[in-house]
Every structure is written in structure tokens, then in C-alpha cells.
Design a protein that fits this description.
Elements (H helix, E strand, L loop, with lengths): L1 E6 L4 E5 L10 H4 L4 H4 L5 H10 L4 E7 L2 E12 L2 E11 L1 H12 L3 H6 L4 E7 L5 E2 L1 H7 L9 H7 L5 H14 L3 E6 L9 E11 L2 E11 L1 H23 L2 E7 L4 E4 L1 H7 L9 H6 L6 H14 L3 E8 L5 E13 L2 E11 L1 H23 L4 E4 L5 E4 L1 H7 L3 H4 L10 E4 L11 H8 L3 E9 L5 E13 L6 E6 L1
Antiparallel strand pairs: 1-2, 1-5, 3-4, 4-5, 6-7, 6-10, 8-9, 9-10, 11-12, 11-15, 13-14, 14-15, 16-17, 16-21, 18-19, 19-20, 20-21
Length: about 475
């Protein structure tokens, strides 16, 4: 609010208020000046002042410095003589902008209907309520059903309806727009979320209807809940593992690490580092990725979760896992906080396993003999081309099979059907000893028979599974 006063000659004697800065006006620069000079570039204001000096109580809405003001002018009299004018002005920019937006809407329902997954609704205080087809779809209500407030209540989760109801009441009675994220009714396992928005519509100064949109946001909510679970997990990890924490302030370019992080990076707690120093501490091949992650967090509020290498004092490097989230102030990202954990040994094991997997794949593809790899449940997890050709099928037909593929029959060496418990792979699993040179017959779907010799069938135990994985070579 701005308070003002001027004498009978139009000279300002008071001009102050918290909103002055919004209009580019400073009180000390204009008190003592004529209102007709100060606001000469806004002719409607001097006109209001003249009318007030003529003894008229004036109410007016004016634009000043890009903001809208609702102004009141009250003449002052002493012994029947006008001695000055006092008044005040309210900043109503937000209300004017909302009004202009509403005036610019041609047809809310038609436009919203064209937007995927967004439905539009209208709640009339003295008439029928309206829903677009998408609202019926989102709420699961048969199209054509007349929407009522009671029916609407049934669409929302019982715990969230009071919040929706209260928002509708405030919008209707006070003209207050609202935006909510609430749950729909339904089972917990199939819980659905919507983003609900409402705007009051006024006529002759009174709210006569509410218009708004509803959009399903279930997938986004699931992602948010997953992030929350990850955050709780990180808190637990930080308590039980060697994890370094840190904060960085974008405004001051200041990094504040924990002692654990300094130990991880080989730094002293007294070492001062800015953003450039932190990026340079990364391996040259990882600097751009680290810098991009920080830039996206600062610019878009996007958390990051990356594995990168940092340089060590012995001219080497080590792998760390870093996660960070933005810190907001007044809607803007001003800082970030995160944790970093040494994963060098884990990364080296991962690279060794990757190399071993590559070697196994090359062996499977180039071996002249058929190879089947089974899991602990004796399901085939990998079959090379040679093994598939022996059975007259494609390699994909063997995977996830515990017995012979459809149309293929396994016979004993004498041509009689062979029980599953007599298979070499079953014997190897049961005894833990390898089985060598077992002969059997494969009869393909085309009726062709092949005599096969399983030259070696053995079980291996992996550290991760804790169980035996049989492998057979034919």
C-alpha cells in the first residue's frame, strides 16, 4: 500500500509505503514537489488530483511503472475550506492480470479438450455444472452423467476431499484461485493422482462460477516417491558407510565438505575450493560430464547421480559415486547438497566382470561345440548357435527352458525316452561333480535324429547368487 497527501496547492506532503519500490518512485525525491509535475507523464493522475482538490471523493484505477493501483482520494476541510487531500493506493496488479487472463479466454473447455490428458470443468454457483469428456475419463464416470458436488466428492480419496472442498469454498466466497495435487479414490495398489486447478469467474463483482482443469499426474508422483525412497536410502548409507557429504553455495561460490569427503579426495579441511577447483579435481575425461550435471542442477533444478573419477595425490585416480539435490530459496536454486562415496574397488570388480562377460560371449560365439548355460533352477540362460543347430531350433527357443524345446525329444543312447532326472545336467547339480562324455540322442521337430556327446557338464558357484550354475558342453 502507498499513502499520500498533498496540500491545497497540490504540493506533496507525504508519499510513502512498502510498495514504492515496485513503481520506481522514491519518497524523498518527490515530497515537496507538485503532484502535477511529478506525474505529468501520467495525465490521468493529475486529473484525479484536480477533482479531489475541487472537493470530490475520487476512486480510480491507474497504471504506474508497469503496476496497477486502486487509488482513493479524500478531500480535507477546515472550517468549510479545503486544505488538502489524503489518500492511499493498493497494488492490484495480480488481480488485474488474472482478470485480463480471464477476459482473453475464448473457450476454456474447447482448448483444454485439445490438450492430451487434461480435462476441463465448470462449477456454477447458480446453474448446471459441466465436464469435458476427459474429466469423465479421468474420474471413471460414465459420459453424460450430470456432474454434482456429491458425485465429485466420491471421485476423490476420502483423506484428500476436505482439502478440495475447502479450496472450492474459498474460490467461490473469496475469489481465490487454487492448485492442488490430490489422490483419486481407489485401491492403494492402483493409487492415482491428479493436478487440480480452479479459477473463479466474476460478474458484477461477485463470483458466479468456477472454471478449471484436471490432469492425471500418477507417473510423476511415482517418480517423486521413488526419489524420496532414494533419499532415505542415502541417509541410511551415510550412517553405515564411508560417505562424504558436502554443500555448495552458487551465490558465494563456496564449497563446504565434511571431513570424510576431504579424506576421500586427499584434501585438508583448511583447503578452500571453488567450483572451478572442484571440476578440475575430476579426471580429464569426466570433467565435462561433471560440469554438465552441475549446470543442469543449477539451471533446471535437476538432481544428479553420477559415477566419475577424481584425481589423487599419487597422480592416479579413483572412482566415486556422487549424488546431489538442489536447495531452493524463494523459488530459485541457490545451492546444492550432496554425498560422495568411494566406489573404486567396486568399479574395478565391475570392469573385471565386464571383461569376463565379454570373453565368455566371444567363446560362445566362436566355439565349434555347442554350449548351454543354466541357472540354479536349470533354466537355460544362454545358448550358442552350435547348440541350437544340433536341436534344429533358433538359440532363442532354448533360453528360459528347463526341458527340451517344443517338438524336440531327448532320448537315451539306446533310443528310449530319457527321464529328466537322468540328464547329465541334473546329475551335475545333485552331486556337484562334473559329468563327462554322456551320449544321448536328439530328435528334432522334423524327425531327424542326431547322436550327441556331452563332453563336459559341471556346476560353478558365483559369489552373488550363492547357488550353482550348471554349464554343459556338447
Amino acid at each position: 500500500m502507498v499513502h499520500f497527501a498533498f496540500d491545497a496547492d497540490g504540493v506533496l506532503t507525504r508519499f510513502d509505503g512498502q510498495a514504492l519500490g515496485k513503481f520506481g518512485v522514491e519518497s524523498e525525491n518527490i515530497v515537496g514537489e507538485s503532484v502535477f509535475d511529478v506525474f505529468a507523464h501520467h495525465p490521468e493522475i493529475p486529473e484525479h488530483c484536480r477533482r479531489a482538490l475541487d472537493g470530490e471523493e475520487v476512486t480510480a484505477t491507474v497504471e504506474l511503472g508497469g503496476r496497477w493501483l486502486d487509488s482513493r482520494y479524500q478531500p480535507l476541510f477546515e472550517d468549510g475550506k479545503l486544505v488538502g487531500v489524503v489518500g492511499h493506493a493498493y497494488d492490484i496488479t495480480d488481480r488485474m492480470e488474472r482478470q485480463q487472463q480471464l477476459e482473453q479466454q475464448n473457450d476454456l473447455f474447447t482448448r483444454a479438450q485439445e490438450i492430451a490428458d487434461v480435462g476441463a470443468w465448470e462449477y456454477n454457483l447458480q446453474g448446471p455444472n459441466l465436464w469435458t469428456e476427459k474429466v469423465y475419463d479421468i474420474f471413471g464416470v460414465p459420459k453424460g452423467t450430470t456432474p454434482t458436488l456429491d458425485m465429485t466428492e466420491e471421485c476423490y480419496h476420502p483423506a484428500d476431499w476436505p482439502e478440495v472442498s475447502e479450496a472450492l469454498k474459498r474460490a467461490a466466497s473469496e475469489g481465490e484461485p487454487f492448485e492442488l495435487e490430490v489422490r483419486l479414490s481407489g485401491d492403494r495398489d492402483s493409487q492415482r493422482w491428479v493436478h487440480l486447478r480452479g479459477d473463479p469467474q466474476s460478474e458484477a463483482g461477485s463470483v458466479v462460477r468456477l472454471r478449471g482443469t484436471v490432469q492425471e499426474i500418477t507417473e510423476r508422483k511415482k517418480r517423486e516417491q521413488e526419489r524420496e525412497r532414494n533419499e532415505r536410502f542415502l541417509e541410511q548409507v551415510q550412517q553405515v558407510g564411508e560417505v562424504g557429504g558436502w554443500t555448495y553455495d552458487f551465490r558465494t561460490d563456496e564449497l563446504r565438505p565434511t571431513e570424510a569427503l576431504c579424506d576421500l579426495l586427499g584434501l585438508s579441511m583448511e583447503t578452500e575450493m571453488d567450483a572451478a577447483d572442484v571440476i578440475q579435481s575430476h579426471h580429464p575425461e569426466d570433467r565435462e560430464r561433471a560440469a554438465t550435471a552441475v549446470e543442469r542442477l543449477w539451471r533446471d533444478g535437476e538432481p544428479f547421480d553420477i559415477e566419475v573419477r577424481v584425481l589423487t595425490g599419487d597422480e592416479g585416480s579413483r572412482w566415486i559415486h556422487s549424488q546431489a539435490e538442489p536447495v531452493y530459496e524463494n523459488g530459485e536454486v541457490v545451492a546444492m547438497r550432496g554425498v560422495s562415496q568411494d566406489i573404486d574397488e567396486h568399479k574395478q570388480r565391475e570392469q573385471r566382470l565386464e571383461a569376463e562377460r565379454d570373453l565368455v560371449e566371444r567363446i560362445l560365439e566362436t566355439s565349434p561345440v555347442g554350449i548351454l548355460v543354466h541357472d540354479a533352477d536349470l533354466q537355460v540362460t544362454r545358448a550358442n548357435k552350435q547348440a541350437a543347430e544340433m536341436m534344429g531350433v533358433q538359440p532363442e527357443a532354448l533360453e528360459q527352458q528347463q526341458s527340451a524345446p517344443e517338438g524336440v525329444e531327448i532320448l537315451s543312447a539306446d533310443g528310449t525316452p530319457r527321464p529328466d532326472d537322468e540328464r547329465a545336467i541334473m546329475q551335475a547339480k545333485q552331486t556337484g561333480d562334473p559329468v563327462h562324455d554322456e551320449e544321448f540322442i536328439v530328435e528334432t521337430a522334423a524327425g531327424k535324429q542326431r547322436t550327441i556327446v556331452a563332453t563336459r557338464c559341471h556346476c560353478s558357484t558365483t559369489a552373488n547368487s550363492g547357488g550353482s550354475s550348471p554349464r554343459s558342453t556338447t
